[in-house]
Structures are given as C-alpha cells and as structure tokens.
Amino acid sequence: MKVSVLLSLLGVSFQIVAAAPAKHQKAAESKPSVFLLAGDSTTATQAANGGGWGDGFKNFTLKAPSFAINYGHNGATTSSFISGGDWATVLGKVEAYAGNSTVYVTIQFGHNDMKLTNYTETFKTNLRRMVADVKERNGEPVLVTSLSRRNYNANGTIADTLAPWAGYAIEVAEETETHYIDLWKNSVHYLEQIGQPASLKLALNDNDRTHLNVPGSIVFGRMVSDLLKWEIPAIGEVVKENATLSEQIWSGVATF
Ligand SMILES: *[C@@H]1O[C@H](CO)[C@@H](O)[C@H](O)[C@H]1NC(C)=O
Ligand SMILES: *[C@@H]1O[C@H](CO)[C@@H](O)[C@H](O)[C@H]1NC(C)=O
Ligand SMILES: *[C@@H]1O[C@H](CO)[C@@H](O)[C@H](O)[C@H]1NC(C)=O
Ligand SMILES: *[C@@H]1O[C@H](CO)[C@@H](O)[C@H](O)[C@H]1NC(C)=O
Ligand SMILES: *[C@@H]1O[C@H](CO)[C@@H](O)[C@H](O)[C@H]1NC(C)=O
C-alpha cells in the first residue's frame, strides 16, 4: 500500500518534472549569451605584435545567436586597460546587453603587469574593481589566469614566471566569490605534454614564445571554452562542441 502510494506519487511528479525541462530549456536557449573578452595581447586578435586565444574562442566555440567580442589590447596592464578607456567600453557593452542576454566578462591580465615594480597590490586592486564593476551591471565576471608562455627547460618542463600572477587572480576570485578558470595551469600542462617542437606550430612567428597564430588561437580558445563550461554549466548550452579537438587537448595530443 505504502509502496503503491509512493509509486503513484513518483509517477505524478515524474510527469511534472518531465514537462518542466523542455520549457526551461527553451527559455534558456532564447536568451543568448554574450562574452566580452577583456585582456592583454594573449587574448587579442592576431596582429603584427599580438595574438591570443580570443579570436579562436569567438570564431569557433559559440552557437549563434550567442557571440563574443574580443577587447584584448596589446601591451595592456590592468591599469592601462582602465585608464585608456577599454574598460569603460566593456562596461558600456555589459549595460547594453544585460537586458536581453546573459553577459559574461572574461578578465585575463598579468603578462604586462608582472613587468612593473611592486605591482602586486595594484594588480589585485584593479581586478577587484573590475569584478565589482561587472557585477554591479548585472554581468557575470570570470577571472582567467594568464596563458602560459612557451619557454621550455632542457628537461621539457615549462619555464614560466607567471605562476604568482595566476595565484593573485585566483586569490581575488576566491575573496570576491567570483568564477575563475585556471588557464595558466592548464596551458602549462598541455604545453609540457605536446612538447616544444609542436608548441612552435602555435606561435605567432618563429621567435615568439608569447603570442599565438591562428592554430594556437583555435587550440587555446577551445581550452578556454571547455574550462568555462565546466566552471559554469549554463555556458555548455551555448557552446558549439568540437569533441575531436577537446579530446586532443585534454589528452595532451598536438592538433597542429
Ligand atoms: C577569425 O575570423 C576572422 C574573420 O573571418 C579571421 O580574419 C581570423 O583570422 C579568424 N581568427 C581565428 C583565430 O580563427
Ligand atoms: C539586445 O540588445 C542589444 C543592445 O541594445 C541590441 O543591439 C540587440 O539587437 C538586442 N538583441 C536582441 C536579440 O534583441
Ligand atoms: C613597494 O611598496 C611598498 C608598500 O607600498 C613600499 O613600502 C616600498 O617602498 C615599495 N618598494 C619599491 C621598490 O618601490
Ligand atoms: C626541470 O628543469 C628545471 C630547470 O632546471 C627544474 O627547475 C625542474 O625541477 C626540473 N624538473 C624535473 C621534473 O626534472
Ligand atoms: C575541430 O577542430 C579541428 C581543428 O581546428 C578542425 O580541423 C575540425 O574541422 C573541427 N571539427 C569540427 C566538427 O568543427
């Protein structure tokens, strides 16, 4: 008796639960996501002196009508991105799109901030401000740790000095309860697995150990996409998958 009551209750609730997701999914699909990519040259569009993961992410990883805008600025520090007006542009877009879209702002700096003396506190203060600015405008900030440079030690490990800066970004993310993805750690791991000869095929030019060419942007754009959807499952609904590429990235096999 008790069991049959329970089963019929389950049956009823099953019907209700089964009907709900379709409706919910439709609502989620009808609201696109907009990704605003704030960062330095390791996010920026491929150019003479810069090139990051942003355009690979933007060109290949999103299902329309969701889209991304790449605001990566060559040479930018957190301070120059703010004082030079880029940040105001990004915030204007957050305000414009928050009404009809889910707006994510990825924030990745460190490559240029690390070159400045005594800059740790300024870096963290700027990141805290950026995160607060986005949240105030109903956007979702995501801190991204710096893409690794591709300098190798003789034993095949990555010789990278960005680790502390990745750590500061994570510190701010945790302190402000903000989403973050650890692009630094995952790019170091991937680069160590594929090795230096394969890493050269991702370089903007033969002597460049920092910036990415188009294949490099495609690989690390996909890495960012995968990390984002694992960190924020709702992003999975707007991602255009490439299972082959993701499989290669996460098993450390070179694609190019
Ligand atoms: C992205 O698309 C633009 C426009 O088609 C193209 O010029 C650029 O090379 C592409 N970049 C990447 C990384 O796919
Ligand atoms: C969403 O808002 C933006 C900014 O106002 C506008 O350009 C865009 O057309 C709107 N999108 C939709 C799907 O209404
Ligand atoms: C670094 O900052 C600290 C604290 O603001 C200050 O006391 C110190 O003099 C600075 N050092 C340099 C080299 O600028
Ligand atoms: C590889 O070489 C670097 C630089 O000499 C060293 O710091 C590191 O400990 C080495 N790692 C391994 C696993 O041997
Ligand atoms: C996945 O990415 C690789 C590398 O860019 C590309 O050659 C392939 O066509 C992509 N596959 C799909 C289904 O988009």
From TrEMBL:
This protein's record includes keyword Repeat: no
Pfam family, one: Lipase_GDSL_2
GO molecular function, one term: hydrolase activity
Annotated signal sequence range: 1-19
Membrane-spanning intervals of the chain: none
PANTHER family: PUTATIVE (AFU_ORTHOLOGUE AFUA_2G17250)-RELATED (PTHR43695:SF2)
Protein name: SGNH hydrolase
Organism name: Morchella conica CCBAS932
